[in-house]
Amino acid sequence: MKLPLVNKEKTTALIKDEAKRLGFISCGVSKAEFLEEEAPRLEKWLTKNMNGQMAYMENHFDKRLDPTKLVEGSKSVISLLLNYYPEDTQNNDALKISKYAYGQDYHHVIKSKLRELQEFITNNIGEVEGRAFVDSAPVLDKAWAAKSGLGWIGKNSNLITQKVGSFYFIAELIVDIELAYDSAVTDHCGTCTACIDACPTQAIVDPYVVDGSKCISYFTIELKNEIPAEVRGKFDDWIFGCDVCQDVCPWNRFSKPHNEPLFNPHPDLLSMTKKDWQEITEDVFRKVFKKSAVKRTKFSGLQRNIDFLD
């Protein structure tokens, strides 16, 4: 059995270099410990029912705030960012889907990269125990990425990075070795309120607080029931997710196209017009979104969202 390297700086540098080779745009590390500042915020958010019908947000409260309860013996949280900003966007005359769903489902793409990173750690560092997470367990991704110095949490509650923007996925490896920890960066939102002013459903109820139950992404993806009539006419043609608060963020003028072929859209997607969307069949849905996250809403859910715009 290969014993883990003891030089924390060297070990951390090795991991970060490999993360970069795998295509991640950033890698930061923080100590696995209780998220003291996040605890009261999360409790208040849940108490105000801002999770809507996302009941899973209420589960595993302790594990959500303390990775050592989620992964036994964990000492470090390795946070990683993967760019998904597309080179080309949808037709101007189209019903809109969030850019993150243009290509293949990010869960599979990132999980594969994380497996490679774990393999690299085992082969080059030693028998390191840990678990990989991609938006699929009670982990506060943005809080850990911010703690690891990868950006700050903006007024739209997204992680934002200087000179990069916010169009990226966040993933973690929680491991049982001590590493060299990074420091958080400062907030650079300043007096800007672009995201708050632009939100079609006024879901950003206070700076840094998003009422999830008012967000277009919630209505078009998470909500399984009928969409409430009071938000009719406010969706600005979004039928799966919403990018408004990111599109208007000044830091996203620095967004550069990703270089992950699996995130490239199906050839038919970008040319689809509003009429094409309104007349979409289940066969076209299956073909265009065969491996996309859009499948999560199912054809019936997408049809519901399209019909709601009429």
Automatic annotation (TrEMBL):
Pfam families: Fer4_16, QueG_DUF1730. GO terms for molecular function: 4 iron, 4 sulfur cluster binding; cobalamin binding; epoxyqueuosine reductase activity; metal ion binding. Gene3D superfamilies: 3.30.70.20. TRNA binds at K224. The keyword Hydrolase does not apply. Cob(II)alamin binds at R64, D135, N156, L159, I170, S217, C242, D243. GO terms for cellular component: cytoplasm. Pathway: tRNA modification; tRNA-queuosine biosynthesis. The keyword Chaperone does not apply. It comes from the Bacteria. [4Fe-4S] cluster 1 binds at C189, C192, C195, C249. Binds 2 [4Fe-4S] clusters per monomer. Transmembrane segments: none annotated. Its EC number is 1.17.99.6. Catalyzes the conversion of epoxyqueuosine (oQ) to queuosine (Q), which is a hypermodified base found in the wobble positions of tRNA(Asp), tRNA(Asn), tRNA(His) and tRNA(Tyr). Belongs to the QueG family. NCBIfam families: tRNA epoxyqueuosine(34) reductase QueG. This is Epoxyqueuosine reductase. The gene is queG.
